Amino acid sequence: xxxxxxxxxxxxxxxxxxxxxxxxxxxxxxxxxxxxxxxxxxxxxxxxxxxxxxxxxxxxxxxxxxxxxxxxxxxxxxxxxxxxxxxxxxxxxxxxxxxxxxxxxxxxxxxxxxxxxxxxxxxxxxxxxxxxxxxxxxxxxxxxxxxxxxxxxxxxxxxxxxxxxxxxxxxxxxxxxxxxxxxxxxxxxxxxxxxxxxxxxxxxxxxxxxxxxxxxxxxxxxxxxxxxxxxxxxxx
Length: 236
Prior knowledge:
236 residues; alpha/beta; two-stranded antiparallel ribbon; 6 helices
């Protein structure tokens, strides 16, 4: 993995967001979002780390090499479909190293939020729910819960108390919203993570955005800002 893109905090750094891009993208693809949210007076204490996924052959794209956190075997997203467990666990290890490195700089783990889009969102759930470090929260945009049985076996004791925000476009043609809803139901029903209506409280908040495709919208990004203000507030 190449060196992550870093967006330093505008004011004194007291919290960090590690945000993972989707398949075929790079950390730079989310730079405008980090810069936009950095203009929020209540979020100027946050440093953003935007990692770049390794380049790998992607089966669903006829073996074409591109940045990816793991291989995608098919874009049909069936519940019982084969998943790249090894690739996911390898990337989770990379993310754990990023988290440990950030903690080593003096940032408490509960002042670190892990988030991502699509593949990056899936990796955020996998890593955040199984990490030995209790993070401040997880942000999952247009993502899903991968390798469920593996996560269930590795689930951290603090996972049920994690604030988690999942946002998804109702018209997403690539990762259908039903997949995200099934993931949310599994998180609550099988992993004991309570559904939560209020953004930023311990538990899972799931929001669906009418008309939104496989992308992020201003409304969704404002909900992300609300989440960050609550889980890693500037006052600490």
